[in-house]
């Protein structure tokens, strides 16, 4: 089972769009998949439930140990895709657990008894580092970073790699690794071209092949409680996410990237 956290501590990088499209795309390829919404805004929950919020219990109840994870997981509008949803109560978890021992390992503990039920677990995360994000990283085995190729794209990538190293060391999650950078919200201008070239030169095969364009179809899909794969399956954005799913499902991320780190990735793109 592969647990993939979609993480960037910068907002506006299409984390939720990526998480939901990846989850739906994997299910369409026949892979049993669970989506865990780790963001109190609950946009991923809203999308995969077809424009509806989730009734309790949600992830907050699981992290507070009020219910078992299995009691909070539910089906979505996509057959084969399960969801551990979020709601606004998730924002209170950080305060509620501030003095609790083991507060950062609660998701891993809650999911342990469900090991092997799915082939993929996708975790959508919020842009700020909190106890909830720490739980996601302690549980995950891989991190994918959506990167908006603007002038500040490089900021935070090294810091995120240091966070991953800290989680590996402090919490013993030695499986956790950065498995790829995904260029999102890409436009046809010199800034995007220059940033993409720099990312590929510096990080080499850590950068996924497909790039996701800035697209009205992606925005339309989100407003309708759908992924772009469902709303506009032939659009450039949907095709890019389909290619991403292919790379991940075939294990190319693992095979091509191995245990490379951001600091050491200076190869040319494959």
Give a nutshell description of this structure:
This protein has 270 residues and is an alpha/beta fold.
Structure description:
- This protein is an alpha/beta fold and 270 residues long.
- It has one domain (2-257): P-loop containing nucleotide triphosphate hydrolases (Rossmann fold).
- Helices cover 40% and strands 13% of the residues.
- It is built from 13 helices and 7 strands.
- It has a 7-stranded mixed sheet with strand order 3-4-2-5-1-6-7, with helices on both faces.
- The two termini are 26 Å apart.
Q: CATH superfamily, please?
A: P-loop containing nucleotide triphosphate hydrolases
Strand order of the largest sheet: 3-4-2-5-1-6-7
CATH class call:
Alpha Beta
Number of strands: 7
Order of helices and strands: EHEHHHEEHHEHEHEHHHHH
Strand content: 5-15%
- Note the total helix count: 13
Question: Average pLDDT value?
Answer: 90
**Helix proportion:** 40-55%
- Assign the structural class, choosing from mainly alpha, mainly beta, alpha/beta, alpha+beta, or little secondary structure: alpha/beta
- The 3D shape can be described as globular
CATH architecture: 3-Layer(aba) Sandwich
Kindly give the count of domains.
Answer: 1
Question: Unreliable runs, pLDDT <50, ≥5 residues?
Answer: 253-270
Rg result: 17 Å
Identify the quaternary structure here: single chain
Q: What is the fold named in CATH at topology level?
A: Rossmann fold
- Let me know the largest β-sheet: 7 strands, mixed
């Amino acid at each position: 089972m592969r647990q993939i956290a979609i993480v960037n501590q910068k907002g506006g990088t299409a984390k939720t769009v990526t998480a939901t499209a990846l989850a739906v795309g994997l299910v369409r390829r026949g892979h049993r998949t669970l989506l865990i919404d780790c963001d109190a805004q609950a946009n991923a929950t809203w999308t995969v439930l077809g424009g509806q919020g989730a009734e309790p219990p949600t992830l907050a109840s699981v992290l507070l140990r009020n219910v078992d994870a299995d009691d909070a997981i539910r089906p979505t509008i996509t057959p084969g895709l399960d969801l551990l949803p979020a709601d606004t109560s998730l924002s209170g978890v950080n305060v509620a657990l501030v003095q609790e021992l083991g507060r950062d390992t609660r998701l891993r503990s809650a999911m342990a008894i469900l090991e092997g039920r799915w082939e993929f677990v996708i975790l959508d995360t919020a842009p700020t580092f909190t106890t909830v994000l720490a739980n996601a990283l302690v549980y995950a085995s891989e991190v994918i970073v959506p990167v908006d190729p603007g002038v500040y794209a490089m900021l935070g990538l090294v810091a995120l790699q240091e966070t991953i190293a800290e989680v590996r060391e402090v919490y013993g999650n030695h499986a956790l690794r950065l498995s790829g950078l995904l260029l999102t919200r890409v436009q046809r201008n010199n800034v995007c071209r220059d940033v993409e070239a720099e990312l590929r030169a510096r990080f080499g095969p850590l950068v996924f092949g497909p790039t996701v364009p800035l697209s009205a179809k992606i925005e339309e899909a989100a407003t309708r409680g759908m992924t772009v794969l469902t709303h506009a399956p032939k659009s450039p954005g949907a095709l890019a996410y389909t290619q991403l799913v292919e790379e991940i499902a075939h294990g190319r991320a693992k095979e091509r990237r191995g245990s490379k780190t951001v600091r050491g990735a200076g190869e040319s793109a494959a």
